[in-house]
């Protein structure tokens, strides 16, 4: 599988701070590149936060994560994996999404993702706010013809109805909408890490009524993270599953650069351990969302996000 073309340059050959940044210094392949059809996992950015309900800034996430990810080396020391040798992984670029028209933005993202899936590439989306995830779920559902499981690591369920009694979606709605549209199977959906204040219980109520497994932070801390992830694996089983990681899953002491932080979450190491526990699942796609550079301190959130991305790439491989 190893192909020099798909290998990032070693820091011993080109300093990691040099060159044009791509995700993990992998090759950037535009839609018409002759080798794009050889890609197994394609990383792409959705630089859009038009569905943010309070503090915007995640539109700048993909660029910050690209820059931070140039620090990534080839080997996962803990697992022994070398993901860039095990699979052909490439940076597929960013989708040009309208910052002022939600319908147009989501439509353009879905058209891009449909093209990625049409080439047999597993999608790895980098947001952007969490509504970006809905575009991937929709196109995976269209391509596969059936619903699939979901593992969500987040401090929020994102199962709220649209705000203000209207129909416009926000980053608080993607998984409710995905269930309504038949993208994800709620009985094979597990959400872990929920915490913080709330307007009401409508999100939890909706999830429980539809069979979603919701593990609030108090339950997670009582169980311990290994047990939480063992339970998550049992819920989704060995059938196709999508993994969504919101950076605000992690305590803001470690990841302050996000629009909706919630205190009392897992440490950086606990979050990485949770992702490693996903290895062996049938992961059909993944994302890392809600990194907001305007709220970051010294780039620590972007660097942690890039590290989580690397762990997700490892989890997506045998």
What does this structure look like?
This protein has 318 residues and is α/β, with parallel strands linked by helices. It has a single domain (4-315), classed as Arginase, Chain A (3-Layer(aba) Sandwich), CATH 3.40.800. It is built from ten helices and eight strands. The chain has helices spanning 61-69, 83-86, 102-118, 132-144, 174-180, 202-209, 217-223, 225-236, 268-276, 300-315, and strands at 41-46, 89-94, 122-127, 148-153, 184-194, 213-216, 241-246, 283-289. Strands 2-1-3-8-7-4-5-6 form an eight-stranded parallel sheet, with helices on both faces. The longest helix has 17 residues, at 102-118. It is globular, with a radius of gyration of 18 Å. It starts with 40 loop residues before the first strand and ends with a helix. The mean pLDDT is 96.
What structural keywords apply?
single chain; 318 residues; alpha/beta; Arginase, Chain A; 8-stranded parallel beta sheet; 10 helices; 32% helix; 16% strand; globular
């Amino acid at each position: 599988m190893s192909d020099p073309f798909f290998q990032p340059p070693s820091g011993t050959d080109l300093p990691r701070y040099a060159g044009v940044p791509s995700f993990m210094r992998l090759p950037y392949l535009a839609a018409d590149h002759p080798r794009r059809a050889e890609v197994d996992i394609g990383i792409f950015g959705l630089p859009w936060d038009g569905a943010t309900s309070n503090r915007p800034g995640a539109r700048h996430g993909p660029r910050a994560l690209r820059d931070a990810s140039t620090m990534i080396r080839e080997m996962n020391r803990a697992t022994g994996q070398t993901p860039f040798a095990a699979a052909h992984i490439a940076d597929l670029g960013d989708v040009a999404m309208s910052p002022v028209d939600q319908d147009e933005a989501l439509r353009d993202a879905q058209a891009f993702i449909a093209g990625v899936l049409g080439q047999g590439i597993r999608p790895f989306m980098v947001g952007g706010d969490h509504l970006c995830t809905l575009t991937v779920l929709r196109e995976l559902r269209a391509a596969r013809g059936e619903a699939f499981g979901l593992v969500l690591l987040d401090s929020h369920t994102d199962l709220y109805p649209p705000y203000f009694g209207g129909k416009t979606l926000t980053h608080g709605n993607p998984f409710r909408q995905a269930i309504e549209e038949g993208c994800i199977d709620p009985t094979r959906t597990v959400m872990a890490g929920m915490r913080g204040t709330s307007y009401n219980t409508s999100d939890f109520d909706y999830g429980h009524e539809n069979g979603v497994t919701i593990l609030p932070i108090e339950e997670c801390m009582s169980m311990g993270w290994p047990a939480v992830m063992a339970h998550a694996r049992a819920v989704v089983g060995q059938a196709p599953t999508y993994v969504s990681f919101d950076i605000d899953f992690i305590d803001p002491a470690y990841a302050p650069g996000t629009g909706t932080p919630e205190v009392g979450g897992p440490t950086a190491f606990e979050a990485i351990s949770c992702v490693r526990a996903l290895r062996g699942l049938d992961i059909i796609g993944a994302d890392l969302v809600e990194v907001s550079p305007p709220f970051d301190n010294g780039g620590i959130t972007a660097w942690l996000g890039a590290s989580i991305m690397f762990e997700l790439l490892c989890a997506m491989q045998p």
